Amino acid sequence: MEQRYRWKNKQLRNHAAVLDGTLPPTILLKNATYLNQTFRKWMTANIWIYNDRIVYVGENLPENTEQCEIMDCTGMRLVPGYIEPHAHPFQLYNPHSFAAYAAQTGTTTLINDNMVLALQLGKKKAFSFINELNDIPVTMYWWSRFDAQTEIDHEEEVFSNSNVRAWLEHENVVQGGELTCWPKLLSGDDMILHWMQETKRLHKKIEGHFPGASEKTLAKMMLFGADCDHEAMTGEEVRRRLMQGYMVSLRHSSIRPDLPKLLDEIHELDIAVYDRFMMTTDGSSTAFYENGVMDELIRIAIDHGVPVIDAYNMATINVARYYNFEHLHGNIATGRIAHINILSDERNPTPVSVLAKGRWVKRDGVAMDEGKELPWSEMGFAPLELDWNLTMDDLQFSMPFGIKMENSVITKPYSISIDVSAEQLPSNHDECFFTLFDRKGKWRINTVLKGFATDLQGLASSFSNTGDIILIGKNKQDMIAAFDRLKELGGGIVASENRVPVREIPLTLQGVMSSHPVMELMAEEKQLLEYLKDKGYKFADPIYSLLFFSSTHLPYIRITQMGIYDVMKKTVLFPTIMR
Predict the structure, then answer these.
(1) Which residues pair with 366 in a beta bridge?
(2) Furthest-apart CA pair in the chain: how many Å?
(3) Structural contact between residues 523 and 508, judged by C-beta atoms closer than 8 angstroms
(4) Is the pLDDT reported for residue 237 higher than 70?
(5) What is the CA radius of gyration of the chain?
(6) Torsion over CA: 382, 388, 393, 399 (sign)
(7) What's 468's DSSP letter?
(8) pLDDT band at 371, cuts 50/70/90?
(9) CA–CA dist 337, 52 (Å, integer)
(10) DSSP letters along 32-56, please?
(11) Per the omega criterion (within 30 degrees of 0), is the bond before 296 cis?
(12) 367 by DSSP, 3-state: which?
């Protein structure tokens, strides 16, 4: 039977019984100097924990300590578990593995994008998956997307009114968005506006996605119901959002590592209203998290002049107040979920010990048991099965123009001037064959990609915005060899030379995620990045390049399930070809 409330009546009675001395706490943190956000100062108290909940914070000690674990916290600093308000937990890593890694660095609550669940799983399986994750130590919340952020077949079915409303009504969903579809909204799409109205009716937040937005656009989006935006890239853009009433999420990610610059400009402009700021890593690629998750952002904030307490608040209580779950998260106080980080020093936000839902996930610098592995196949994340073969006939190129990379994620059209009829392109230029295949083998679209590499022979990737298959390379035979190895793996990213795979990242969860722990995946991703740089990739993040080739929320030309798409004109320039 589904549990409708966070704690059942019997559990609540047990919590009160601990105060009466009838039951002992499960953990007692004595002499704890902790961050009290009500008084905005460090205070000393005893913290009683019963299972997953803080049941008392104050001067008293429990009468009953039988079988209670007691830890003397003298000399330590305790802060609430950190909250990542804008996670994309499918960037090669999976939600379970990322949560386990994030918890080691003190991030014990994640607010997650549901895009992959919406596109790859049916609603029933997606909700079952979400419920399964409720049992892990990290608290997982979700968004409800309103669009696919690309042009896809049957979008009206995936993002039907009934599906979106079911997501919005789910108790683990705390916001709608992010609003990558805002141009459609401004153009008069009343279905999106209806979903925003439903989100507000349910007293949930709406996350914007407004890069480069003018003051007028920001004002309009606020009128429509947007609450927060994470796309400010300058201090002036932060000021513009604050002026229109937004909560501002300051971003520091693998493709936009902006936090130091933003903070410096915020201070120069004298707009440091810290209670209106959150921080996010915005779903960075794995290697970017080597130095931590939210703890690294707190460290950057402290180093760039943010007062220590405000730096912690931007990753804890500010987020909890914004999402209206301050009664559960964001502070160390009676009644809250027992997410607590124990620090050696207040200026070092990486914890030496971490409690998540009252369980030790890290103790004295040592990772504790990460718990059970998930039954991935049962939940719809089986290895990718491709029952079709790639042939040389599929790699015929006659497109009059190609796609040019301006940076990791922005792509423009350009006229093709090279001969693309041969099996091999030379290495004296940065143009490669570029193909998107339907994962079921029904269609393809072939063009040329400029700027990705100079000497890459063949690369195949099932990691993409929609889970369709990307092929890039100078040599058609190596492109086929990389694809064949991808099939053997059950999904992944594979590079091939002389018909032999030379680098690979297995993505055996539906072809879009790895089942490996984040540290192991980090090593695999670093090897791939070094390889691609050696082959001429010159931008910041090839993982995001692969993900965003199809993403129509970015300018200017995209390769999609409909064909090559002009984002500004909202038209298909060249349709896909049926195989």
Answers:
(1) 363
(2) 83
(3) no
(4) yes
(5) 25
(6) negative
(7) P
(8) low
(9) 6
(10) EEEEETTTTEEEEEEEEEETTEEEE
(11) no
(12) strand
**Cα–Cα distances in Å, from 160 out to 118, 141, 145, 164?**
11, 22, 11, 6
In this prediction the pTM is 0.97
Amino acid at 1: M
Residues 14, 15, 21, 24: is their CA dihedral positive or negative? Answer: positive
pLDDT at 258: 98
Per-residue pLDDT reduced to its tens digit, 154-191? 889 999 999 999 999 999 999 999 999 999 999 999 99
Cβ burial 96-128 (10 Å sphere, 16+ → b, else e): bbbbbbbbbbbbbbbbbbbbbbbbbbebeebbe
The token pair at 155 is 């979008």
Average pLDDT rounded to a whole number, residues 139-161: 94
- Structure-token match 């935006």, residue found: 229
Type of residue at 365: G
125 Rama class: left (phi>0) / alpha (psi -120 to 50) / beta: alpha
Contacts of 135 (CB under 8 A, 6+ apart): 371
Indicate the Cα dihedral angle 534, 535, 539, 541, nearest 10°.
-80
Residue with tokens 């192991």: 520
| Dihedral angle of Cα 186, 284, 233, 249, to the nearest 10 degrees | 70
- For 58, the token pair is 């104050």
What HEC string does 399-416 produce?
A: CCEEEEECCCCCEEEEEC
